[in-house]
Design goal:
By secondary structure, the protein is an alpha+beta fold. It is built from 3 helices and 7 strands. The strands form 2 sheets. It has a 5-stranded antiparallel sheet with strand order 1-2-3-6-7, with helices on both faces. The protein has a two-stranded antiparallel sheet with strand order 4-5.
């Protein structure tokens, strides 16, 4: 596996709509594994192919157990051509992004979603997600459409630098433990 460079805001590839993937093959599975390794190393909880400069509709997610609330299960996913087919509820919470380092802001998202996608075995899947996993999926699917979390912020005054203790290491990506609005 290999660590991949993550592109940052200002790179026009982040604003392009990614192309659909027709078939999952060994090259795509390797790409998903490399993206997963890159995301964990960053550290983050989600990564979309456009963030590594590839216009492909592929996302990886790794939300550790107890990430936002005690008792939340770990969720590890690789999704091809994911799309949200149902969404309801609204909750505002703090998000960050590996492609916009050192900035966070309060973003409204649906609290519960249904996503259809393909897995790495070319099988169609449908999954339901709530809470933090739903937020991560929405954030990463936005990347596939050239949308960044800062585009979703309603109150721009919430865009800020994260407050951290100098030795605190917390995954970046989509918010963090104890996110505002939860």
């Amino acid at each position: 596996m290999a660590l991949l460079p993550i592109i940052v805001e200002g790179d026009p590839r982040l604003r392009q709509k990614a192309t659909r993937i027709r078939n999952v093959d060994d090259r795509l599975r390797k790409l998903a594994a490399d993206m997963h390794e890159t995301m964990v190393d960053a550290p983050g909880v989600g990564l979309a192919a456009p963030q590594i400069g590839l216009s492909r509709r592929l996302i990886v997610v790794n939300v550790p157990a107890d990430y936002n609330e005690e008792g939340d299960p770990a969720v590890v996913l690789s999704l091809v051509n994911p799309e949200i087919v149902r969404a309801h509820g609204r909750v505002v919470a703090t998000e960050g992004c590996l492609s916009i380092p050192n900035w966070i802001g309060d973003v409204p998202r649906a609290d519960a979603i249904t996503v259809k996608a393909m897995d790495l075995n070319n099988k169609d899947i449908r999954l339901k997600a709530t809470g933090w996993v739903a937020r991560v999926l929405q954030h990463e699917i936005d990347h596939l459409d050239g949308i960044l979390f800062v585009d979703r912020i309603e109150d721009k005054s919430t865009l800020r630098r994260p407050e951290r203790e100098p030795d605190e290491a917390e995954p970046a990506g989509v918010g963090g433990r104890g996110a505002a609005g939860r």
